[in-house]
Design goal:
The protein is built from seven helices and five strands, in the order E-H-E-H-E-H-H-E-H-H-H-E. By secondary structure, the chain is α/β, with parallel strands linked by helices. It is globular.
Length: about 180
Amino acid sequence: MKKLEGKVALITGAGSGIGLAIAEAFVQAGAYVYIMGRHAAPLEQAVKKIGENVAAVQGDVAELADLKGVYTRVKQDKGRHSVYSASKAAVRSFARTWTADQQDRKIRVNVLSPGTTDTPGLNELITSNAVLQDRITNLHKIVPLGRLVQPAEVAKAAVFLASDDASFITGIELFVDGGIAQI
């Protein structure tokens, strides 16, 4: 049996980069994944790339109506799934609240906080912005592990938190940032 067999996940920002890597890893680990993003074309490409056990829902996590729409879709399709999305500034606060709220339902809520990640979007920004190129070069010097995190590394941490290997972990924030938040 795969680590996430029988689980349903909603992954936001999954048209590319970290979100896409996490969605791919979740499907490979046995989960059925709903991917959400603001733009239809990247979502459609992501669904084709992942291939199975995935559905796209276009929407913006900052819009309450879009969150209700994805919640309704997951509930209709799968008969479950608590919405796990919020603005990035409020995610940690939501996690604390949801940890307590979902206690009786045995739903675990954790936050995954990646560092600067080597994604196509970041690379596009770097090539068009000399100041950003300098910042990334300096970032390599101050990150204890000396490099940017790869999307697949963030995805592995996400699979761990969603799996039974983390069955007694809830309400935490896991930093996948090469140690920069710790120094």
